[in-house]
Design a protein that fits this description.
The protein is mainly alpha-helical and 155 residues long. It is built from 6 helices and no strands.
Length: 155
């Protein structure tokens, strides 16, 4: 299967959002504990990677360039998701409240995605609306953040 190509970093983040939404839908339809456990593990892994990329690369690049309240809320939403992710990973599908924890995580992520992707006011729209002269070009800004992350530098 050919790898998808993305026009920019925000398109990549949106693709991640769609992937996790699909995984949550699959979880809701799953009937076996094994399938639920596998899907929950995949959801948690995808969210941990996505959260790390946002917190280490994107959010610092957004600092002082978008509304402070929007960025602060995003960090707090990540913190809430991390608590649920840890609870889900520490449990099993047979545990009481396991499905409820995955459901609440799904709802929190839907809200978070809405806040990022909202047309006109969302975090991504604010970033895309920045005049280029106000800072480095957006791609240069992200490149400089990525190159400062040891896990993203080339050997």
């Amino acid at each position: 299967m050919a790898k998808a190509k993305y026009t920019d970093a925000i398109a990549l983040l949106k693709a991640d959002h769609r992937k996790v939404e699909n995984l949550f839908e699959q979880f809701e339809m799953a009937t076996s504990a094994t399938k639920k456990g596998d899907l929950a593990h995949q959801i948690c892994t995808e969210l941990k990677i996505h959260t790390l990329i946002e917190e280490e690369i994107f959010y610092p690049a957004f600092e002082s360039k978008i509304e402070a309240g929007t960025l602060e809320e995003a960090y707090v939403e990540h913190d809430g998701a991390k608590v649920l992710i840890n609870d889900i990973e520490a449990g099993s599908p047979e545990d009481k409240f396991y499905d409820a924890k995955v459901k609440v995580l799904s709802e929190e992520i839907k809200h978070h995605v809405h806040e990022e992707e909202m047309r006109g006011e969302g975090m991504f729209a604010q970033w895309r609306g920045l005049p280029r002269q106000r800072n480095q070009s957006r791609s240069e800004c992200f490149r400089s953040r990525i190159s400062s992350c040891p896990s993203f530098t080339e050997a």
